[in-house]
């Protein structure tokens, strides 16, 4: 008997008391929105959704048509349900308040509506990343300050990868579960739970073209991997870089590995390329819930106190022993 996402969430709510009804509703709405995004992505050129939208987002990046479509789908799906106070998106400069015509809830939803969008036009896996926080003060109204909570405060986090399969990966703090979209019924079906990342790995993911810009600890770690059996690591390594964080993280959750997008001296004033609130925090919690680790090189990512909604961070995550090694090199 297959277990649907809805049944899994009811069991997390009823049997385990892990999530209240409002959070269950929120996660079901997000999953439904991801199904709509998957449908749009899968149309590709046939849907007239490829290419640039001729606009820029807050990050100064050219937006793809699908970036904007995915953002609109998530906003429209979530704004009326009464479970949210506000939303934040990589594609929007400021937070999105739930319109007054709808009831307000206590949850805050953050998302990168379509991560990896440089891969959209070349048919490589992309995905939606989401993070859920709760308003900390019971007061009325909501502001950006309500969002600025460390990642360890998340109550749910996940992503939906649009690849050969459309798979939703989720944690509510009780391990990591994976749900594959059964297109015939249009429902997400549980295909793996209690995901575990091997503590060791022979596979690293980093954009090697940036090597000359890296800090010494990162350079040392990668050099040692490249030395293979003849070097201090005593084993050969393999390299992967999909340039789509969702796809690289999905591989790591599935078979282990280490993913690195470290600070580099191309833009020394930026702590990294990836965003803390809606990329590193949700992915960091998923990885930790699967037995892995996530650091910025010096600090656990989930302990970082955000100061801005769109702040960036250096990301090193995956197999625990490898992440620990990189962290120790930063300490050294
Ligand atoms: P680069 C996609 O644009 C993204 O934000 C992540 O999904 C991905 O890991 C990274 O940037 C790729 O960056 O510099 O290799 O193109």
Domains (count): 2
Q: Average pLDDT, to the nearest integer?
A: 95
In whole angstroms, how far apart are the ends?
Answer: 52 Å
CATH H-level superfamily of the largest domain: Fructose-1,6-Bisphosphatase, subunit A, domain 1
User: Which CATH architecture of the largest domain would you pick?
Assistant: 2-Layer Sandwich
Query: Radius of gyration from the CA trace?
Result: 19 Å
Unreliable stretches, pLDDT < 50, 5 or more residues?
none
Number of strands: 17
Tell me the name of the CATH class of the largest domain: Alpha Beta
Task: Give the ligands present.
Answer: 6-O-phosphono-alpha-D-fructofuranose
Notes on the protein architecture:
Strand 8 (166-171) and strand 9 form a beta hairpin. With 332 residues, the chain is an alpha+beta fold. The protein folds into two domains: 5-192, 2-Layer Sandwich (Fructose-1,6-Bisphosphatase, Chain A, domain 1), CATH 3.30.540.10; 203-330, D-Maltodextrin-Binding Protein, domain 2. 30% of the residues lie in helices and 24% in strands. The longest helix is centred in the N-terminal third of the chain and has 23 residues, at 21-43. Residues 115-116, 118, 207, 243-245, 261, 273-274 line the site of 6-O-phosphono-alpha-D-fructofuranose.
């Amino acid at each position: 008997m297959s277990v649907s996402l809805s049944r899994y969430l009811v069991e997390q709510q009823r049997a385990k008391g892990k999530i209240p009804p409002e959070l269950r509703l929120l996660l079901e709405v997000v999953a439904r929105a991801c199904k709509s995004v998957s449908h749009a992505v899968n149309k590709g050129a046939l849907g007239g959704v490829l290419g640039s939208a001729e606009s820029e987002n807050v990050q100064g990046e050219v937006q793809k048509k699908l970036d904007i479509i995915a953002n609109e789908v998530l906003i429209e799906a979530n704004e009326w349900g009464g479970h949210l106070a506000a939303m934040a998106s990589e594609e929007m400069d400021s937070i999105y308040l739930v319109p007054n015509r709808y009831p307000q809830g206590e949850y805050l939803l953050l998302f990168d509506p379509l991560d990896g969008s440089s891969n959209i036009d070349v048919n490589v896996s992309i995905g939606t990343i989401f993070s859920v926080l709760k308003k900390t003060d019971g007061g009325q109204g909501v502001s950006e300050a309500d969002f600025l909570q460390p990642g360890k405060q998340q109550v749910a986090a996940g992503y939906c990868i649009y690849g050969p399969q459309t798979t939703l990966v989720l944690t509510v703090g009780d391990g990591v579960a994976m749900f594959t979209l059964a297109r015939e019924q249009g429902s997400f079906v549980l295909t793996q739970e209690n995901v575990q990342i091997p503590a060791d790995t022979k596979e690293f993911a980093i954009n090697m073209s940036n090597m000359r810009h890296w800090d010494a600890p990162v350079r040392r770690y990668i050099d040692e991997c490249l030395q293979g059996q003849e070097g201090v690591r005593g084993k050969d390594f393999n390299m992967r870089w999909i340039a789509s964080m969702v796809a690289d993280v999905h591989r790591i959750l599935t078979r282990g590995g280490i993913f690195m997008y470290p600070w580099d001296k191309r833009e020394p004033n930026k702590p990294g390329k990836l965003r803390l609130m809606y990329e590193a925090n949700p992915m960091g919690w998923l990885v930790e819930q699967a037995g892995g680790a996530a650091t910025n090189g010096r600090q656990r990512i989930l302990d970082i106190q955000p100061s801005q909604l769109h702040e960036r961070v250096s990301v090193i995550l995956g197999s625990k022993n490898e992440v620990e090694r990189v962290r120790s090199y930063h300490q050294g």
